[in-house]
Write a structure and sequence with these properties.
The complex is a heterodimer. By secondary structure, chain A is of the alpha+beta class. Chain A has 6 helices and 37 strands. Classes of the chains: A alpha+beta, B mainly alpha.
Amino acid sequence: MSSVSQELKDTSVASSKWLDAHYDPVANLYTFSSCIALSDLHGDGENKLVVGDLGTGVCNMKLKVYRGIGLLSESTLLDLPTGLVSFLMDLHEPRTPAIAVASGPFIYVYKNLRPYFKFTLPSLEVNPLEQDVWSQAKEDMIDPMTLKEMLEGLRDKAEIPLSVRSLRFLMLEPQEMENFVLLNKEQPIRRQTVITCIGTLKKNMADEDAVSCLVIGTENGDVYILDPEAFTILYKMSLPSTPTLMDVTGQFDVEFRITVACRNGNIYILRRDSLKPKYCIELSSHPVGLVRMGKNVVVGCTHETLHGYTQKGKKLWTTYLPAPVTTMALMDLPTRGFQAVLVGLANCEVHMYRDKNLIGTIKTPDVVTSICFGRYGREDGTLIMTTKGGGLIVKILKRTAVFDDRDSAPGPPIAQSIRLNVPKKTKLYVDQTLRERENAVAMHRAFQMDLSRLRLAAARAYVKALESSLTPMSASLTEPLKMNAVVQGLGPSFKLTLNIQNTAASRPVMNLAISFLYDENLYSMRTAFFKIPLLVPGLNYPIDTFVECLSDKGISDIIKVFVLREGKSAPLLTAHINMPQQLGFSTEPPKTESFSITGVQRSLRWP
Amino acid sequence: VHLHMFYLLSAAPEFPILERRNWLIHLHYIRKDYETCKAIIKEQLHETQGMCEYAVYVQALIMRLEGKIQQSLELFQSCAILNPKSSDNLKQVARSLFLLGKHKAAIEVYNEAARLNQKDWEISHNLGVCYIYTKDFKSADEQLNLALQLNKHDLTYSMLGKIHLLQGDTEKAIDVYKSAVEFSPENTELLTTLGLLYMQLGKYQKAFEHLGNALTYDPNNFKAILAAGSMMQTHGDYDVAMNKYRVAAYSVPESPPLWNNIGMCFFGKKKYVAAISCLKRANYLSPFDWKILYNLGLVHLTMQQYASAFHFLSAAINLRPRMSQLYMLLAVALTNLDDADNARRSHEQAVQLDESDPLVNLNFAVFLYNQGDKKAALLQFQEMERKVNTQVENNSSTEFDPEMVEMAQKLAGALQAAAGYSKSMQMSTEPEADVSRAPSPPTVPPGDPEEEEEETAKLTEKKSKPKAVAE
């Protein structure tokens, strides 16, 4: 009980740490943490919220700017925004930051919310052999079929992948190839890649308002650092896989460190002095969120875990989360010297972790897809979240809020205080127990006696059945037979069908006969004895005969069926058929009785 | 809305870049938003006429998650055609083959992938797992160790441990789990497994340490609770054990071993009716579990419900016909039911089946003594002494139940008196009263029917532990 109330108290305390500033469930935002930034766009000391909205995912992509709780402006984006950062690109006064939106192979730079510059990723190297082949095609030296063969050869062997044009060409039907070549041969071959993530890196000063370079990761696994003013490539590094998440720290001119989570499930740490990754963290599941806290890296993985690593890739701790991670962000309050990791979970909660300790939980009305914490308007501790349904949530951290950094090692689980559900025993049970205690010996003897009697009775019945060949037997089996009898009809005439089957593996059975034994006062049969043809193994032989009931008193009796072997008086099989009562004109439905017997030959004498 | 000059600047590429939405597909995939992911993939594949390798790849991954393994295999194979250089595609083909149970084919494809990427722990690990299924433990061991050299993962450790367990090499398995726990000290699964292995070897101190650690990190770990609880029970900490069981009963309310252990906790606390209730529930949940029947028999013996005890014990014997303690208890029940002939037969059977338990012989000796057959009793007594001595030789710290020791001493006295003075000293059904304090060898331990029940209670609890573990 105590731990339940404790927990309730905890959640109420946690929720009271935040002021609910704004919640718009229909803000219509489809975005991710990488596409959200808080920036003092106009240099008026008031931070705006800049969101790269993916629209429907196909069209209607927008760059939206919020001030306070209202939409300040929105402008159309040409393609899906991959990432969005705010950065200072020069030292001009007033110091207004620019917004860079990565989208496809381009970076669109906005200043004062106006388009300012477009950067295009350099084209990738084209396979010279491919170039060669196409130039041959251009001069009509080879026909499309040869072109196709050569390109296929290249595709399977070459180090450098083919361009989209060649790949498209390889998909074509033969009759379309000619046109395709005519249409495209004049164009130069290009291979282009796209940006997958973007970050910023201070150029040469650590100040908050220092000029920053852009750092971009591309689909083919390169990382570029761009000059903030000229947008030339200052530095290029390569990764073994496509980067998905990125964290950058340091200064370009001094020393920097880029932590990149990649699509192959690894995290690579790049440093200034090497073109290849310096350290590698192999995760056991895909990283969903990557946040740097001081010198450590916190990674949220698809397996509902949160890991802490040092900047050299050594694992520090692991925490298990109650639900899959949707997004992560850093909560940084430099004025208070407070840092925590915000983890958005699929169970509509946002957890705050400091190292491996859970220090707070925020319940949200919908699953959070993006989180951004920072200065919004003039308020330092603002938490901005967007939800899966397109909602926008703004919360402000209370200035009085205190996060005690206690170890979150849980006390005893609540279940420990729940009473065990032990079945109760009645007074009757207790009485019976006492009776047993007093009369154990008598009870035991009575039981054993009855048990013996039961066994005896069973054995007797069994022997009797054996003697009259009534039961299936597995003794000397030379002629295994199976018989099934069916009685049909309402009476006084009945049809009696005997289904006889030879269950031997291969041997046929010959020279069998069937005989009936019945009360001649009650029944008459057209043929009470007939021969059975040769029985092929496995086949079912239905044998029909007709029974006439002679009595009109509604009595019924048993008809015995014997399967006999010629020359022997002992039956192979005996069946007792309970004849149905003659129904006359009563409304009762006709009864059908059937049963089956398996039997084998045995040498019992005729009783 | 601003007028956009980018319209003028951008000359659309003649062909859309195949990979342009890969990041979005990946983002939705790792967030487990599969519906949206599938919609984007469909669009992307439509746009690129099925040439976007990554879209096909993720589609196959999602299909596999949805259980459409054969289809996923086909898609991965088409990925491998689009990009034959990628070891990832081959890995996934192999994974799908593995899930379809085609382990040999999977091994082949993994080997092919390994040629493209030498240093991938995942390939080595999965190869190891495939080899386990094809029963090639040597290669499996090799591959898993290779995987560990490339990169340490908890999963690889578990698999390696499993191989050793499959080969029956508990010591080696313990070594593997030990290094696993060193690498990942908070993995409750590993801690629990290691604890249980120690328990199997009888190293209770170490077992308890690891199980305790597991419970610190995850107080709701069912396996660890059951194992640790049964150890507490062995040491008589019934209340602490019950506390733990309450947690377990909340999460797994229908576990037969759990209710068995709870029942034996009540038994230890001398709450016999509750014990019977819990054991009967356990028996209801798992009617063919001989351990529960054994315990039920034992509790009923204690309750002097000999007729019921007889039924539970004979049911247990039917399920487990080669267990000497069961025959011993049955003999005790029969003795109390005044069926000396059958009791003797049952005792004989118990002695014949038993190899190391001195209690079996002691009980028989007491029975024979009470029947007046002092010679045979002496023989059984000596047999018991022999077993005790062997146990002491093997492990000098072996402790015997004090009640058993006391009873043995009494019996020794009585037998000595009988033999020494050749006086026929009739021992009543309660031998304690008759036995004089005769000197007896210090290490000799025996007991009598009444006492054994206590002793066997402990035995049973111990037995119920590994049981729980297996669940």
